[in-house]
Structure formats: structure tokens, C-alpha cells
Design goal:
- The protein is mainly alpha-helical.
- It has one domain.
- About 75% of the residues lie in helices and about 0% in strands.
Length: about 55
């Protein structure tokens, strides 16, 4: 069973258009925490590596 690439792309594009607001909010939230982590001082407490990865 093969999936038509054009049909797959149009379906993906339709999904992105339906969830555009959610994707923008998630991207801004990710950017906010990235900038926050960049400008904060590093913390060396036990277990913090599990949070910050």
C-alpha cells in the first residue's frame, strides 16, 4: 500500500493550517524558555541535570 506524496503533503498542510495558532504559541513558548535559560546563571544542585537535560 503506497501513499501518494501529493496527498500526504496536502493533508499535512491542511493540518498545519488548522493548528496554526497552537504551533505559534508552542514556538513562542519554546523561544521564551530558550532565552530565559540562556540569560540565567547555571545552577549546580543535585537532580538539576534531570530538569535541564
Amino acid at each position: 500500500m503506497r501513499i501518494d506524496p501529493a496527498r500526504l503533503a496536502s493533508g499535512l498542510l491542511a493540518w498545519v493550517r488548522r493548528h496554526r495558532r497552537l504551533l505559534i504559541v508552542l514556538a513562542l513558548l519554546s523561544l521564551f524558555f530558550s532565552v530565559l535559560g540562556y540569560f540565567t546563571n547555571p545552577v549546580s544542585l543535585p537532580g538539576m541535570c534531570r530538569i535541564y537535560g
